[in-house]
Specification:
Blueprint lengths: L1 E3 L6 E4 L5 H20 L2 H30 L3 H26 L2 E6 L4 E9 L2 E5 L5 H14 L3 E5 L5 H13 L7 E3 L4 H8 L5 E5 L2 H12 L4 E5 L4 E5 L5 H13 L9 E7 L3 H13 L20 H15 L3 E4 L14 E4 L16 E7 L2 H9 L6 E5 L3 H10 L4 E4 L11 E2 L5 E2 L1 E2 L3 H4 L2 E9 L2
Parallel strand pairs: 5-6, 5-8, 6-7, 8-9, 10-11, 10-15, 11-14, 13-14, 15-16
Antiparallel strand pairs: 1-2, 3-4, 4-20, 9-18, 12-13, 17-19
Bound molecules: nicotinamide-adenine-dinucleotide.
Nicotinamide-adenine-dinucleotide binds next to helix 6 and helix 7.
């Protein structure tokens, strides 16, 4: 498989991929190795993750450059991802022992009865991952899965293969056996071959379309399935905000990572009374973003990682134009060899347009005027997705009232495009099922076993 730099189309590596036979062999080796890994004291498994953290710190710049070369993420944002990874690792290092220890839920001395819950590893799990934040979405799964005593067959996205191989190498150097964390290399076929193995759980991050296929396969097997899928995340800007500061914050939420975040701001509703001022400040902010070579320190908008996405963006712009939208900025690919698209801002948009309904996953955004909170809430909920939603206002009570009515896994007041390791990360509707992060996201890789113990 050729690994291409999405910014300039250059081939940066040629890697061997897994076929059905090698995937089956990797599965068998992981199955054989898992019991010994699970039998180790948790402290030992946690120590391997602490060493992995040290390796990440030591190699940060090399890892950031690889990520930028293969994904097209601006170099500063690659470094940010690695810094963010450290915070996640710190959370898992601090919380795993507590989250996974046995819980006594009843001690009845008179009846000589004890009830207890233990957290058993699932066994061998498949982790099929996305490319847009490979360190984040990967570590959310494989770190707690390993700490809980599972073996992990890890299929990085074909667009983040070199990063996936770095992760495997660093984990192995840190003491995780090669048969306990096993990279499976390739595209959709390699993922499909992995799913043909009798794994005990499937943890997937990617699009709704692929997630639905995976759910159908796993559903028949009665194994644990978690799906972290896409979003069409809304922001509502009330009339009482500081317009300039809010426009800057929301623009960052829409364009950071070149708009290729699962929780990117994908649609904006602004109270009609400040709409014109907000749009002016927003466009001025986006005009200041430097779109360019991701290796350049000044670049803020980098490459579109997957070439087919350029057509999705072009179609969304054309559809919006046809239905009456005005494109105030951008609207077309940037000339050059690689996958590039201008930062694009559309107004006079509505929900008949694909731009306001389908995940864009690129540097384009629609801004719609609304008459008040009820209309905003109705529009925010008018979606197949439900990953995150945000409201900007000075009024805390108003914010909480609005956010209580919004159907999404995460809600934000005066912030957006944000993930915390301490909070569960989940979606509703087509944004997925299950969760990662928080103590629930540590226990997610275990099966609670119920112990009823009566003394003789
Ligand atoms: P994708 O669905 O194209 O691919 C995801 C993974 O699935 C890749 O590793 C791919 O090789 C594999 N795959 C493809 N077909 C398969 C099959 N038939 N069987 C098994 N595996 C198969 O998604 P992507 O382009 O890598 O990621 C972008 C999407 O991921 C966006 O929709 C984004 O919103 C979403 N995402 C969600 C989260 C979240 O936390 N909710 C985080 C990051 C990305």
């Amino acid at each position: 498989m050729k690994i291409l730099n999405p910014w300039n189309g250059a081939t940066i590596a040629d890697v061997a991929t897994d076929g059905a036979r090698s995937v089956a062999a990797k599965y068998r080796a992981a199955r054989a190795a898992q019991p010994r890994w699970a039998a180790m004291p948790i402290r030992k498994r946690i120590e391997t993750i602490a060493r992995f953290r040290e390796r990440i710190v030591a190699l940060e710049e090399t890892l950031a450059r690889t990520l930028t070369h293969e994904v097209g993420k601006p170099i500063r944002q690659s470094r940010n991802e690695l810094k963010g990874l450290l915070a996640r690792l710190d959370f898992f290092l601090a919380e795993s022992t507590r989250a996974l220890r046995d819980e006594k839920v009843l001690v009845d001395h008179a009846g000589r009865l004890e009830e207890r819950i233990s957290h058993e590893p699932l066994g061998v799990v498949a982790n099929i991952s996305a490319w847009n934040y490979p360190y984040f979405v990967g570590s959310n799964v494989f770190v707690p899965a390993l700490v809980a005593g599972n073996a992990v067959l890890y299929k990085p996205s074909e667009y983040a293969t070199l990063t996936g191989l770095h992760i495997a190498e660093l984990l192995h150097e840190s003491g995780v056996p090669a048969d306990v964390f096993v990279p499976v290399i390739g595209g959709g076929e390699a993922g499909a071959a992995l799913l043909r193995q009798p794994v005990d759980g499937v943890f997937f991050t990617g699009s709704y379309a692929t997630g639905a296929k995976i759910a159908a396969i796993a559903g028949r097997r009665m194994i644990k399935v978690q799906l972290e899928l896409g979003g069409k995340d809304p922001v509502y800007v009330c009339e009482d905000v500081d317009v300039k500061a809010t426009a800057a914050a929301v623009a960052d939420g829409a364009f950071y990572n070149t708009g290729q975040s699962c929780c990117s701001v994908e649609r904006i509703y602004v109270h009609r009374s400040i709409h014109r001022a907000f749009v002016g400040a927003f466009v001025a902010e986006v005009k200041g973003y430097r779109a360019g070579d991701p290796m350049d320190e000044a670049t803020y908008v980098g490459a579109i990682t997957r070439r087919p996405q350029i057509d999705v963006l072009k179609r969304q712009v054309a559809d919006a134009r046809k239905k009456g939208a005005s494109i105030l900025l951008g609207g077309k690919p940037i000339a050059g060899k690689g996958n590039r698209f201008e930062p694009t801002v559309a107004v006079d948009v509505d929900h008949t347009m694909a731009l306001m309904r389908d995940e864009s996953f690129g540097p384009i955004i629609g801004i719609q005027a609304v008459g008040g909170d009820d209309e905003a809430v109705a529009l925010m909920n008018d979606t197949e997705y439900g990953l995150t939603a945000a409201v900007y206002t000075h009024d805390e009570r108003r914010a909480k009232k609005i956010l209580a009515q919004v159907n999404a896994g995460s809600v934000y007041w005066n912030c957006c495009d944000r993930v915390s390791p301490r909070l569960p990360w989940s979606g509703v509707k087509h944004s997925g099922i299950g969760l990662t992060l928080s103590t629930y996201g540590i226990q997610a890789f275990t099966r609670p076993k119920a112990w009823h113990l009566r003394g003789a």
